[in-house]
């Protein structure tokens, strides 16, 4: 039997028009994946912190003055770039991302003051906020039936690019940090040239939607069913009416209704709190490595190994089959507890650089294991547009949280702690999160046992022979007219929710 995708391509080859469309789609996929791969080739990125420390900047300046600018500026530019990405239809933001990377490496090569490096962090935050453009852009150019394959290809290209960049950086490290920065700048300029030839989509998710498929306008309905004559609304009323009828406001109303779902709330909260801690560890781990051993430098190799393990963990998460409505909190608590233990290990063994390398690789793999699960759990109950909005809100809230923590813990205007003391606080942060999740999982388990214990189940001996025969005939006829046992509430919740999630995903595909 020929698979569905191959059958479609075989039929396309028989139709000249579909054949041209198939070739065009293949060329588009190849170019997008090639651009995604090349945009990740920055061999000097793994060695930015050692380069700064070698470039006459002290550990205190890097820890308490330069790095804290990154979460501040990221929070400031995230929402504007998120909205501009959709309004400008993706391509201009991809060009902006490449231009910002060019500014980052020019400041690294030519800057010589703390202010220059702070501006470098500002431009780097713009590149971070612009990453959403690529992940959204690829879905605006292909048909919904190809979303899954497109996501697979693009994700593979990005991970392969990150892995290749880290390996290349480690191999070329003996040439010196300055040479790595020049090589990175060359790759970025090449990616900038590729971004200029990207195809600009005609439609986007929020601002550039097609008018087709919408219902009849109020004017048409008034003509079909004329009612009493109403006075013409004023300018302010028209503006308020347009805002109430806008697509974005309607999505926000729908989002408020969907927030009542327990699984959606749980995984959104995990995304916000765990992402904040994960990125704080990622920002400062290179400083901890440098303080542990200033001579040994395997940053590129460790980043490559952590990227490879993250890809393996993300792939293996797709094969985990459990009842998520019952076991989600326990799984989340276990993973966060592992993360807390790894961060505590970094604090205790901070003088052993090899243990720091291994714990960081495992820490990153633990986080990446839950990312695809959280993505599925959030996306399974939402539309494509609402899903993008939820992920944007989650990212913004995580950025706000890590900004607040940075201001209190790292910034010189706050506590201004050294990097090892910061990691003690981050370890306590993950420990508190795991305890909260374990308590929530225990309470869910008690509720489940209590409902199972108090569930009324009619016994056969309680029914008379006549009632038993009537119930048997009713079941055979398809209608239960006699006494019937009610299903366990948790089973109904879990079964319906999981099956409906699968149906929603199939419908969106």
Q: Keyphrases for this structure?
A:
disordered N terminus, mainly alpha, 509 residues, single chain
Commentary on this structure:
With 509 residues, the chain is mostly helical. The protein has helices spanning 4-14, 16-38, 48-54, 59-66, 69-87, 91-110, 114-129, 131-137, 147-172, 177-195, 218-224, 235-245, 247-258, 262-292, 299-317, 324-348, 353-379, 384-410, 419-453, 465-477, 489-508. The chain starts with a helix and ends with a helix.
Give me the secondary-structure topology.
Layout lengths: L3 H11 L1 H23 L9 H7 L4 H8 L2 H19 L3 H20 L3 H16 L1 H7 L9 H26 L4 H19 L22 H7 L10 H11 L1 H12 L3 H31 L6 H19 L6 H25 L4 H27 L4 H27 L8 H35 L11 H13 L11 H20 L1
Would you summarize the structure shown here?
The protein is an all-alpha fold and 509 residues long. It has helices at 4-14, 16-38, 48-54, 59-66, 69-87, 91-110, 114-129, 131-137, 147-172, 177-195, 218-224, 235-245, 247-258, 262-292, 299-317, 324-348, 353-379, 384-410, 419-453, 465-477, 489-508.
| Structure class | mainly alpha
Report the span from N to C terminus.
Answer: 22 Å
Task: Tell me, briefly, the overall form.
Answer: globular
Order of helices and strands: HHHHHHHHHHHHHHHHHHHHH
Q: How large is the radius of gyration?
A: 27 Å
What proportion strand? under 5%
Counting DSSP E segments of at least 2 residues, the number of strands comes to: 0
Spans where pLDDT lies below 50 across 5 or more residues: 1-14, 211-230, 457-509
Report the helical percentage.
over 70%
Biggest sheet descriptor: none
- Average pLDDT value? 77
Helix tally equals 21
């Amino acid at each position: 039997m020929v698979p569905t995708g191959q059958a479609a391509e075989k039929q396309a080859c028989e139709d000249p028009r579909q054949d041209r469309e198939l070739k065009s789609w293949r060329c588009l996929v190849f170019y997008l994946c090639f651009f995604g791969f090349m945009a990740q080739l920055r061999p000097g990125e793994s060695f930015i912190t050692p380069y700064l420390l070698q470039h006459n900047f002290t550990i205190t300046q890097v820890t308490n003055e330069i790095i804290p600018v990154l979460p501040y500026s990221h929070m400031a530019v995230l929402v504007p770039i998120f909205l501009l990405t959709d309004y400008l239809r993706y391509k201009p933001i991809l060009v902006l991302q490449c231009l910002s990377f060019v500014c980052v490496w020019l400041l690294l090569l030519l800057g010589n003051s703390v202010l220059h490096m702070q501006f470098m962090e500002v431009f780097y935050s713009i590149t971070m906020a612009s990453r959403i453009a690529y992940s959204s852009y690829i879905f605006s150019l292909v048909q919904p039936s190809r979303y899954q394959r497109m996501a697979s290809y693009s994700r593979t290209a990005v991970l392969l690019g990150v892995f290749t960049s880290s390996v290349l950086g480690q191999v070329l490290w003996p040439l010196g940090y300055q040479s790595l920065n020049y090589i990175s700048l060359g790759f970025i300029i090449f990616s900038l040239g590729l971004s200029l030839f990207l195809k600009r989509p005609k439609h986007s998710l929020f601002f550039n939607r097609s008018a087709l498929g919408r219902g009849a306008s109020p004017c048409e309905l008034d003509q079909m069913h004329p009612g009493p004559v109403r006075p013409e609304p004023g300018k302010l009323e028209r503006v308020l009416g347009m805002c109430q009828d806008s697509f974005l406001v309607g999505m926000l109303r729908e989002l408020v209704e969907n927030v009542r779902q327990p699984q959606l709330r749980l995984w959104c909260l995990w995304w916000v709190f765990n992402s904040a801690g994960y990125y704080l560890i990622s920002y400062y781990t290179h400083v901890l490595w440098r303080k542990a051993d200033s001579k040994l430098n395997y940053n590129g190799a460790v980043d490559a190994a952590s990227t490879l393990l993250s890809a393996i963990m993300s792939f293996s998460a797709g094969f985990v089959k459990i009842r998520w409505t019952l076991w989600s909190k326990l799984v989340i608590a276990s993973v966060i507890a592992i993360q807390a233990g790894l961060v505590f290990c970094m604090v205790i063994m901070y003088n052993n650089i090899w243990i720091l390398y291994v714990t960081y690789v495992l820490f990153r793999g633990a986080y990446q294991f839950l990312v695809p699960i959280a993505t599925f759990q959030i996306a399974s109950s939402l539309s494509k547009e609402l899903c993008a909005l939820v992920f944007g809100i989650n990212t913004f809230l995580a950025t706000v949280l890590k900004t607040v923590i940075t201001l209190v813990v790292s910034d010189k205007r706050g506590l201004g702690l050294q990097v090892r003391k910061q990691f003690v606080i981050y370890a306590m942060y993950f420990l508190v999160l795991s305890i909260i999740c374990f308590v929530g999982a225990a309470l869910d388990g008690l509720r489940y046992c209590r409902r199972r214990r108090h569930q009324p189940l009619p016994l056969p001996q309680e029914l008379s022979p006549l009632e038993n025969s009537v119930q048997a005939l009713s079941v055979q006829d398809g209608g239960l007219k006699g006494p019937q046992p009610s299903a366990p509430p948790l089973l109904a919740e879990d079964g319906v929710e999981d099956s409906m999630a699968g149906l929603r995903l199939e419908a969106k595909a």
